[in-house]
Amino acid sequence: MATNNPDLDSALAQQSPTPEKSAQQSKPVFKEAERWNHPRSNILKMLATFWSFLVMGANDAAYGPLIPYLENYYNLSYTIVSLVFLSPLGGYTLAALLNNKIHTTLGRRGVAWISPGCHLLAYIVNCVHPPYPVLVVSFIFAGFGNGLADSAWNAWIGNMANANELLGLLHGLYGIGAVLSPLIATSLITEAKVPWYYFYYIMEATPQGDDPAGGLRQALFTKRSARVTWICAFFLLGYVGIEVALGGWIVTFMMRVRHGEDFASGMVATGFWLGIACGRVVLGFITPRIGEKMAIIVYSLFAIACGLILWLVPNFYASAVAVSFQGFFLGPFFPAAVIVATKLLPRALHVSAIGFAAAFGGGGAAVLPFVVGAIAQARGVQVLQPFIIGLSATTLVTGLILILGGYTYHVYYQNSVLSKIQNAFYNKVSNSNHDSDTPRNTEKFYIQRPEQPLIDEIVRGNEAGHYWLIFGEKGTGKTSMLVHAMRDIHGQGVVLLDAHDDIDVFRLRLGRALDFAYSEDYLGGWLSNREPRDGTALLDIERAMNSLEKVAIRHRETHGRPLVLVINDIHHIQDDTENGRRLLTLLQQRAESWAAGELLTVVFTSDEYRTSDLLRLHAARMNVLNVRDITVDLAVQSLKEYWLHAFWEEVPVETLERIYSMVGERLSFVDEIAKSRDILKTCESICERERRWFLKKCWILGKNMHEGAKEQQEYCHRHWLSKRRISKSPNSELPGIPLHKAQEMMTRADLPEKLNQMNIISIDDNDIVTASSVPMQSAFRAVCSEDGIKKKLKATTDRLNEIESLERTTEITMKDLVNDGQYEISKERGIRGEKNIRISYRKPLSYSSWSW
Question: Any idea which UniProt keywords this protein has (predicted)?
């Protein structure tokens, strides 16, 4: 039986949050994503990031068209000239290591200054066409600037609304820069006949807020977060390497292998980067509709197909078209990878993890083109396409690890959640605090109530199509019947938990009973830390109910009967708080829908009439079982049998009659008496205990009552008016009054329910008001028969009227004084010589007086 551990319950009660903290926790904590146009300052920031990526694209795409001319200018081999691709790796590596520190220290504004500053420094050095080693070193600064901007702007825009579309535009601007760069460089060199370094005169003219983030160490080495960071990093390493290697060496490939002219070959590079730009913009709007997972797989297959055409079809024009379409399908890879990473990683790690992955991936722009150059030196530039296809396949495999691995884990996790919930109903070891509700020898003295067969059928799941409210006074045996029924079936198919007035504690108890973990059940669980959900306890309970419903559907299909969920003491959930009302509504809605589908039978137990009154308002499939005191014959027979078994004695008939007259048939009282050696003393103790409880809660204070006790004394006084009628019957009987009559006598409709909550009176399912028990009835009778009680009741009535009159007079006087009125009090004699007091009230523009 999956229920709450008593030790845990006490610990939870001690650790339950304060009302203020609980209210804060129960507020929704979802943060609305920033938009590109809200706040308004984001518009200019977006334009600045677009310009930054335009410069980055122009920077990266310039290497390819310039390689043939760098070879000639410096008289270099393929391997040595490829160092211009390798040297930015130092900058990217430095950016990967320092990105998080710079971002948290200087913020996005700091990145916005440092990145273009590094670009400007590199381009100034290039403009003076220094010796080749200095040129190689200058590209380190360009790589550092690229790495900082790449990580910062990807992380910022990746968290915005419509991130796929915005990242598509952002990287589309990168592609446009990459389109313009080869076009301008090729035109300057081939058409204008100027040296290669004139291109950097143009680049020299182009260089142009902050979220807290988790540490880089956490992103790289902490549990599952490291998996996402490193897999994304290697994916981007391969992708960026493909992009820059293809864009960088395609001009040489078209000139040397496809025997194209210089200008035409340069335009092929322009076509490739134009494809990149168009793909990022156009496919950026398609990707969110088909999903990043499917998009990366489909785009990879198309890109590989275009690569095969470029490799196997020895035609200049076919190769030019193929490489353009290859760029088109490669374009969305980077934005899609960033979006996947933002979904898989906690928000606090977005800047550090995505920044590292982007900078590490940028290293692919340095290493892989250099590798192509080194191989080309030995084997010829025709190795470009086999190398690109192999790298594309490797990148696809990395993407599949990131996506399908996470999806596979997601499916496994969902099934694991449902299996754990199912095991909470079956294959369990009981740790119920209800196992100790009755003594170890309960089997020897268990009073079989007449409702027990019905309870057995409910717990076995044979009463499908309804949910149940079992209510009655405390101690009538509601929970004992349920526990007894659960023991008979070894708790199979049943879960029981205790309700609580704190919704967070109820959430924990429900999770423990169902073995349900309230953590984020999303795709990245395999790859990232499974963090608690952002949201309210009520949303967590709803998610637990969703999973429970799936288990109930499976169970119904395999076993042909519903599961049973018992929520004990539901009266603890208060309907006078917003969270309490919402929780009750959620539970009843679920109970109704599950009963309609015969999926799960919910059983509520309650000690209070209030719960029945609340649930009846919206109940369509609720059955109510009102558990009352057992019959006289059953109580007497059970008591005789127990005494004979335990003490080897028979209880005299006179003693049994006296017991009945003192405590009635309340099951908890009978159980307490049966285990006592001195029966009559125990009866007297029970009666005295009930009497003290009644006097503690409802005693009237008389003429000396303080004004502060007025509200409490009002319902005590009104209760006394009704109890005098109830007390007129014999002790062993509980006379009833219709609820509306009790409300009329008390002059307030809410007082009977308040007294019911205090276990002073009982209200049954027929709306009849009685004393809560025979000992309570005896207390009514004894107190009402005391000498002087009528005088005390009258004195209390007079004092309440006096306080009420004083409050009204004070209220009127305060209103008059607030309106600038004045009171004058004087003594005078009347016509017969009597003394009168005259009180005159003067308004600002009128005068009135009265006397008595």
Answer: Membrane, Transmembrane, Transmembrane helix
The angle that helices 364-379 and 355-362 make with each other, rounded to 10 degrees, is 20
Phi, psi of 837 (to 5 degrees): -115, 125
- What would the two tokens of residue 302 be? 């198309």
- Torsion angle, CA of 581/582/584/587, rounded to 10 degrees? 180
Exposure on the CB side of residue 545, measured as CA atoms within 13 A = 18
Distance of CA 363 to the CA centre of its chain: 38
Phi-psi region of 475 (alpha: psi -120 to 50; beta: other; left: phi over 0): left
Cα(753)–Cα(743) distance, rounded to whole angstroms?
Answer: 10
Give every CB contact of residue 473 below 8 A, 6+ residues apart in sequence.
607, 628, 629, 666, 759, 762, 772, 773
Per DSSP, the residues of 420-480 read HHHHHHSS-----GGGGSS-TTGGGS----TTHHHHHHHHTT-STT-EEEEE--TTSSHHH
Percent of residues, the chain, with pLDDT higher than 70: 75
pLDDT at 270 over 90: no
Helices (H), 597-709: 609-616, 632-647, 653-663, 667-674, 679-698
Query: What CA–CA distance (Å, rounded) separates 645 from 661?
Result: 24
Question: What pLDDT score does 12 carry?
Answer: 35
Closest of 342, 368, 370 to residue 78, by C-alpha: 370
Buried b (16+ CB within 10 A) or exposed e, 312-348: eeeebeebbbbbbbbbbbbbbbbbbbbbbbbbbbbeb
Structure tokens at 615: 């649930």
Both tokens assigned to 342 = 């933002």
Task: Count other C-beta atoms under 10 Å from residue 833's C-beta.
Answer: 6
The two three-digit tokens of residue 153, written as one number: 């702007």
CATH fold, domain 426-626, is: Rossmann fold (3.40.50)
The average confidence (pLDDT) of the chain is 75
Name residue 53's amino acid.
F
Distance CA 126, CA 204 (A): 9
Q: Describe the strand order of the beta sheet including 737-738 as a list of residue ranges.
A: 737-738, 768-771, 761-763
Question: How far apart (Å, rounded) are the C-alpha atoms in residues 303 and 282?
Answer: 16
Q: Name the nearest CA neighbour of 482 among 565, 425, 551, 573.
A: 565
Residue 498: strand, helix, or coil? strand
Is-same-fold flag (41-411; 426-626)? no
Among 198, 202, 178, smallest CA distance to 190 is for 198
Domain residues of the chain, as ranges? 41-411, 426-626, 632-696, 697-794, 822-852
* DSSP state letters, 786-819: STTHHHHHHHHHHHHHHHHHHHHHHHHHHHHHHT
Q: Residue 848: is it exposed, middle or buried by C-beta count within 10 angstroms (0-12/13-18/19+)?
A: exposed
Distance (Å, rounded) from C-alpha 360 to C-alpha 151? 10
Dihedral angle sign, alpha carbons of residues 414, 415, 418, 419? negative
Give the contacts of 347 (CB within 8 A, at least 6 positions apart).
159, 211
Lowest model confidence (mean pLDDT) among 201-205, 743-747, 803-807: 201-205
- Give the integer Cα–Cα distance in Å for 471 and 592: 18
Say yes or no: domain 697-794 is CATH 3.40.50. Answer: no
**What pLDDT shows up at residue 251?**
80
| pTM to 2 decimal places | 0.55
Task: Give the sheet arrangement for strand 622-626, strand by strand.
Answer: 494-498, 563-568, 600-606, 467-471, 622-626
- Angstrom CA distances, 694 to 596, 610, 711, 758, 771, stand at 43, 20, 17, 9, 11
Furthest CA-CA distance within the chain: 137
Write down the CATH number for the domain with range 41-411. 1.20.1250.20
